[in-house]
Design a protein that fits this description.
The chain is mostly helical. It has one domain. 73% of the residues lie in helices and 0% in strands. It is built from two helices and no strands. The N and C termini lie far apart (46 Å).
Length: 75
């Protein structure tokens, strides 16, 4: 599935904001609310997804951006 570029680039931010909102929702509702463990789990999964996507994209851009070393050009 292909996503438009603005949506694709903003996914880690969207996941991060969503995770923070879920965690703040747990704080607002209180830990003893019936749905709090689910909200907390969703918040942590969203934050981990945001971090994972950012790290994997960073590794990919470093690989693509680094030119291959060519020893013949030095001599």
């Amino acid at each position: 599935m292909w996503l438009p570029e603005p949506v694709y680039k903003s996914l880690p931010t969207l996941y991060g904001v969503m995770g923070i909102l879920f965690i703040f929702g747990v704080i607002y509702l209180g830990v003893d609310a019936p749905m709090s463990p689910i909200y907390l789990g969703l918040g942590l999964v969203s934050l981990l997804a945001a971090i994972g996507i950012s790290v994997s994209r960073g590794k990919g851009s470093r690989k693509a951006g680094r030119p291959e070393s060519d020893d013949s050009s030095n001599s």
